[in-house]
Write a structure and sequence with these properties.
The protein is of the alpha/beta class and about 375 residues long. The protein has a domain of about 140 residues: Rossmann fold (3-Layer(aba) Sandwich). Helices cover about 45% and strands about 15% of the residues. It is built from 16 helices and 10 strands. It has a 6-stranded parallel beta sheet with strand order 4-3-2-1-5-6, with helices on both faces. Strand 9 and strand 10 form a beta hairpin. Helix 6 packs antiparallel against helix 14, helix 10 runs parallel beside helix 13 and helix 14 packs antiparallel against helix 15. It is globular. The chain binds magnesium ion.
Length: about 375
């Protein structure tokens, strides 16, 4: 079998590093053709020496560094050219391991080039899911999600002739699940960043504290599996062992269970439709003893409902939600606003937005820009005091 040629966009982040572990776990199965990273170019240099990619994109500082590094046989690109890397003819599968809206253009380029795309990134599908799915259908590009919940749904739907009546997205409940509501206003970034189940970057950890992360996954699932928002249910499951479930007309629920390690969904996406050993420890249900479930508390976590509403309204609203959230969470992480202001500011931007239905890419990017400026304006008086 010829090795699968992969490009990893965002190779120095946690998904990128786990993807390379999957490559190591399966010698001969993959060839790393391209790597990209924004600023961790020392780590990237080690990856270049080990995996010998022929194409590498890196941020401005890294570009200067590699010019004088004497590395041979590699074509270097500025990181803004990730879309070019995602559509290289020598690439079969593109792993979108980078976070943020910067993944949108490479995602579109990859599906237009008919690649298999394995997205861990949420933002691109949240803001431009209709466009991406339309282009993917047109160019017969396959999308196999890496996000654990979406991977679980994808796996549960494999081989089914019937469409599901609903999907149940599980949520660990985030770092504030057991914190009383009265203490929310005192939560600092440090309190939030002690996340119980998954080790993730700071932005996504704050989003999992507000449950906005789950809200984005609702919008993502809507696009990936062609569902209505009312067919998507969120279920808090603190052990994070069931990664999501699918419900059929006869009332049967199919679930995917596994240890909480991203290498499992990453490897599944990369070796699909094969299943191979991961080297991870087995899931020991007897040792766990029990699994727990509860409904999400929308009063405590109103961001989740806001995301459902954005998904229902569609058009440019999800892009506005995403952009406002990105600005506001960044301000929170810098200590400029309090935890409760995250929701308040995002909701204000949401209410002020005039939706454009069936937006073009340009209209989506304009809405994104508008929402960022609006969020900053709303936060301005707070920044001064
Ligand atoms: Mg997830």
């Amino acid at each position: 079998m010829k090795p699968c040629r992969i490009a990893i966009l965002g190779s120095t982040g946690s998904i990128g590093l786990n993807t390379l572990k999957v490559v190591d776990q399966n010698p001969g199965r993959f060839r790393v053709v391209a790597l990209t990273a924004y600023n961790n170019f020392e780590l990237l240099e080690g990856q270049i020496k080990k995996y010998k990619p022929s194409h590498v994109a890196v941020g401005p500082e890294g570009l200067d560094h590699f010019k004088s590094s004497g590395i041979k046989g590699v074509k270097f690109y500025p990181v803004v050219d990730c879309a070019e890397i995602a559509s290289l003819k020598e690439v079969d599968t593109v792993v979108l391991a980078m976070s943020g809206t910067g993944a949108l253009m490479p995602f579109l380029a990859a599906v237009r080039a008919g690649k298999t795309v394995a997205p861990a990134n949420k933002e691109a599908l949240v803001i431009a899911g209709d466009l991406i799915m339309k282009e993917a259908r047109k160019h017969q590009a396959r999308i196999i999600p890496i996000d654990s919940e979406q991977s679980a749904i994808f796996q549960c739907l494999e081989g089914q002739r019937s469409k599901p009546v609903s999907v149940h997205l599980t949520a660990s409940g985030g770092p504030l699940r057991e914190v009383p509501s009265k203490d929310f206003k005192r939560m600092t970034p440090r309190d939030i960043l002690r996340h119980p189940r998954w080790k993730m970057g700071p932005k996504i950890t704050v989003d999992s504290a507000t449950l906005m992360n789950k809200g984005f996954e609702v919008i993502e699932a809507k696009h990936l599996f062609n569902l209505g928002c009312d067919q998507i249910k969120v279920l808090v499951h603190p052990e994070a062992i069931i990664h999501s479930m699918v419900e059929f007309a006869d009332g049967s629920l199919l679930a995917q269970l596994g240890v909480t390690d991203m290498r499992l969904p990453i490897q599944y996406a990369l070796t699909y439709p094969d299943r191979l050993p991961t080297g991870l420890k087995d899931l020991d249900l007897a040792q766990l003893g029990s699994l727990n479930f509860e409904k999400p508390d929308l009063k405590r976590f109103p961001s989740l409902e806001l995301a459902f509403e954005a998904g229902r309204l569609a058009g440019t609203m999800p892009a506005v939600l995403n952009a406002a959230d990105e600005e506001v969470v960044e301000a929170f992480l810098k200590g400029k606003i309090g935890f409760l202001s995250i929701y308040k500011v995002v909701e204000k931007v949401f209410l002020r937005h005039r939706i454009v239905k069936n937006p073009s890419l340009k209209e989506i990017l304009e809405a994104d820009q508008w929402a960022r400026e609006e969020a900053k304006k709303i936060m301005e008086p707070r920044l001064r005091c």
